[in-house]
Amino acid sequence: MLSAAPRSVSSVARELGLTRGEVESDFEHLIRSVRAAGHRVIVQPAQCRTCGFAFDERKLAKPSKCPACRGSRILEAQISILKS
What we know:
Helices cover 30% and strands 17% of the residues. The chain is an alpha+beta fold.
């Protein structure tokens, strides 16, 4: 699923009928396992649409507010896997 195109935690959760919280913890484990298997994980960090602030790559869940401008228009992190 993640090797075809970048996906957000919310989009995967919706597709699987789960909550974002359930999928987020699974994603963290998945990323560690995939890296250990020698594959490359690309995380495009969440970003504020208003000011462009980029969040930490480790933050997979959608932040509620931007710490720089306090805006709430946030693009979710996008995760993809490149198989070696």
